[in-house]
Amino acid sequence: MKTIVTISGGGIIGNYISSKLHNHNIDSLVIEKLSKSNQVKENIRTLTLNQASKKLLDEIGVNVNYAEIKKIFVNDGEGSGKINFSSDEIGSDNLSYVVFFNDLQQALQQKTLERTIFENEIKKIISGEPSKNSEVTLSNNQSILTKFVAGCDGRNSKVAKIGKFKEINNSYNQTAATFTVTVNNLEETSAYQIFSEKGIFAIMPAPKSSGKLTHTVVWSIDNKRLKDADIESYVIDNINYFESKLGTKIKIFSKILSFNLINHHYQSYVSDSMVLIGDAAHSIHPLAGQGINLGFADAQVFCEEIIRGFERSHEPDQKLVLKKYEIKRRSLNLVMLKSMDLFVNTFNSNNLYTKLIRNIGLSSVNKINFLKRLFINHAAGNNKI
């Protein structure tokens, strides 16, 4: 079997890349370890897409149910600091869009079914010379000749392991809980974020499910607070704090999912014919909901370089194509990761002086229009990330 791009991982980013390349007549194969029928039925986990990411999905004809966010209210729960963002301030209809992870995953998978090999993983990669094909061996011993191997297989990337990429990682020592809720007295198109000693709490509108209006919560909790309680008990016992801050009644509507929070990135994204993209290359704190958008930005640049390479030659320079992708994405991703670490450390601190500084900082930015527009444009994806 022979193809141009072999994609490890049939997730959102891998399937997007395959669809984008297919629209430009560039062959690809997606290798997915799960079966085609392995679908999670309940919608709980959500993703926040900025305008740039949604535009990429629109361009390949993916349309899923989403909730609009027009305003974002950020508050320091331990003080008076606050900052508010509105799409009106940048002359836009919306700031971002909330989708259910499962809905987006399934919509993208449907577009790549004929190009996906299910229930398989990449077992071995033998890279050829830059002008030659590499040989990929699957877990069923099937062999694929390919020019590029794209690792879109998440935090524990098989491609990264095979390629012996050098990883740098760090634990936030936090656990994130996510679940859907019903509320009253909250604006239907507004998102709210509260920084407090009980954790970083974000609540935003979720796509309507069976005609019912729900919201989604992402709550990052310091592990020290979970020593004597499981995550579900902690959520139930402490959610009234945020009800009081928001002036609303919050009723939990779904199961509570949880996961440990870490960040990671690699010293290089490229090795021979192998390249890391999205969560395979980096992961960050969900504080600003930018993880998926960084992944789409990676995928866009990767596809652009592949397409541009084939427009210039039937045998594009493999090394040059991948190096251009790495140069354009790695430094920007690293800046975002370091910025997010700074935000987490600042807003997770119980130091009195740090609390004072963040309160002053939030309120100051809220009063300076050009700084606010800079933040808003960045969150909406109008600035390159």
Brief characterization of the structure:
The chain has 385 residues and is of the alpha+beta class.
Structural write-up:
The chain has helices spanning 12-22, 51-59, 101-112, 158-162, 231-246, 291-312, 318-347, 352-367, 369-380; strands at 2-8, 28-31, 46-50, 66-69, 71-76, 82-86, 96-100, 116-117, 122-126, 134-138, 143-151, 167-182, 190-196, 199-205, 215-222, 251-252, 257-266, 270-271, 274-276, 282-283. Strands 5, 6, 12, 13, 14, 15, 16, 17 and 20 form a 9-stranded mixed β-sheet that branches. Helix 1 runs parallel beside helix 6 (291-312) and helix 6 packs antiparallel against helix 7. It has one domain: FAD/NAD(P)-binding domain (3-Layer(bba) Sandwich), CATH 3.50.50.60. With 385 residues, the chain is of the alpha+beta class. It is built from 9 helices and 20 strands.
